[in-house]
Specification:
It is a single chain. By secondary structure, the chain is of the alpha+beta class. The protein is about 35% helix and about 15% strand. The chain is built from 4 helices and 4 strands. It is globular, with a radius of gyration of 13 Å. Keywords: Endonuclease, Hydrolase, Nuclease. One of its GO terms (molecular function) is endonuclease activity. This is 5-methylcytosine-specific restriction endonuclease McrA.
């Protein structure tokens, strides 16, 4: 349920550190966690923003906002393929 690069970033990690709560938290699990509870898109829809400790830690641990991915999202947005229609966007 992840691209090769995100899967490689994750490796065998199950937890990561959240800077805001100053605690180690579980990484987002797409099989059991709800995306809208943990993440939303920036107003320009290029950045994934973590809402919860799990969301924030996952964004950092899996490098969700690395430059290459932002460029892919921008290109996908231009052809109407991004963001996913049901995903929340920052207002």
């Amino acid at each position: 349920m992840a691209c090769f690069h995100c899967n490689r970033q994750k490796s065998d990690k199950l937890k990561s550190f959240d800077e805001k709560s100053l605690s180690e938290v579980p990484l987002f699990n797409p099989r059991t966690d709800s995306w809208p509870e943990h993440f939303f898109w920036s107003t320009d829809t290029l950045l994934i923003i973590g809402l919860t400790p799990t969301g924030r830690a996952t964004v950092v641990a899996l490098a969700f906002n690395r430059a290459r991915i932002i460029n892919i999202r921008a290109a996908d947005r231009e052809i109407g393929r991004h963001p996913p229609p049901d995903d929340p966007i920052q207002s």
